[in-house]
Amino acid sequence: MKKTFIRIATVALAGIFALGAAACGKTVKDGSVIENCTIKVSYVKDGKTVERDIAVELYDNFAPATIEHFKYLAEKGYFDGAALSNTNGYVEFGAYEQSGNKLVSRADKYAAIIDAAYKNGKTVGTNGLMRYMDDGSIRGEFAANGIGGNRLAFSDGVLVLKRDYSADKNSSYYNTGKGSMAFVFASSTYFDSSEKFAILGKLVSTDAAESNGNVSSFSFASGIRTDYAKDADGRTYYYYTYEYDPEKALEADRGDEEKAKASLEELGSRYFMLDEDGDYFALNEQTGAYTVAVDKEEHDVLLKHFNSKSVYLLRTVAQEYNFKVVSVTIG
Q1: How many Cβ atoms from other residues are within 10 Å of residue 16's Cβ?
Q2: Domain residue spans of the chain
């Protein structure tokens, strides 16, 4: 009963604030004040580097603490230069930057921005819960975590704060979001419910113009998943992030887990290329070329894991496109 009352009160307050904003001339949609966000990206097209703006409407009343977190990171330049690190169903950016064939973590850059001084005293929700965990991750601002509510659906084409994945849907992972964002277009194994993720806003679908090729922000961002996933020779590139933890693995799974781990160690890389014939090649870390054949019999368990643990298999944008975020601006 108490949680229900809090949610009703939160919705009521959001409505009051939205009405006040409307009276001040601000745009209001679905009971929330709207704030404009522009994510500028650059990429190579027809041999030339071009830039494109992706327009997003932030719904300030639905996840205010998370939006403040996102805006602060943007203000500090955190997203500038970030790679589009995953196009496997959704488009992810913020966690990595590109360095040749490899992705480099931006964890140190995040920690320098979301430091102790910034975290101090910040709260989230009507109960005044501490907003940040000790490691700098932000408390999940969504219904399943008992904080706030959201009226946007994944199918709307939304901007979402990613968090750690839990195969058993463990709620302890709710408070693990940091600086990794994603454009999401549908429910999936990872994005299984809009009530379990902080949704910040929605891609604009009505801004098609000659200046951006008559393609709206929604259509452009959605098309990244198919238009830039393969190189000119039809090859796809992946980065496998799964880490085997013996303490968390089920007894029945440990044998296969050890085999997959041994395969990764033997192949000497977590970067893979899938060619048009359906064969995987690992990156030769010394030469920078994908020349280490992944034998389908010898490494069968690892290849099975690529399917069963697909949320850990990041499908990167082909390197030849050099796709990255240039800047994120608000207003």
Answers
A1: 10
A2: 2-231+319-330, 243-308
The answer to whether the beta carbons of residues 208 and 216 sit under 8 Å apart is yes
Cα 214 from Cα 208, distance rounded (Å): 4
In the block, tokens 């019999």 appear at 297
**Alpha-carbon span 98 to 81, nearest angstrom:** 8
Closest Cα partner for 223 from 94, 321, 81, 104? 321
Instruction: List, for residues 107-121, the tens digit of each pLDDT value.
Output: 999 999 999 999 999
With beta carbons less than 8 A apart as the criterion, state whether 74 and 164 touch.
no
d(CA 111, CA 268): 29
Q: What is the model's pTM? A: 0.90
Q: Where are the beta strands (DSSP E) in 60-198?
A: 84-86, 91-93, 96-99, 102-105, 123-124, 129-130, 158-161, 181-184
Residue 268: pLDDT over 90? yes
Helix (H, G, I), strand (E, B) or coil at 306: helix
For 198, the token pair is 């902080």
Average pLDDT over the chain reads 90
Q: Which of 195-204, 212-221, 235-244 has the lowest mean pLDDT?
A: 212-221
Residue 124 burial by Cβ neighbours in a 10 Å radius (0-12, 13-18, 19+): buried
Nearest to 233 by CA among 271, 269, 281: 281
Structure-block tokens of residue 202:
């929605």
The third-level CATH classification (topology) of the domain covering 2-231+319-330 is Cyclophilin (2.40.100)
| Long-range contact set of residues 263-271: C-beta below 8 Å, sequence gap at least 24 | 263/294, 263/298, 263/299, 263/301, 263/302, 264/240, 264/302, 266/299, 267/292, 267/294, 267/299, 268/292, 270/239, 270/240, 270/241, 271/101, 271/102, 271/237, 271/238, 271/239, 271/240
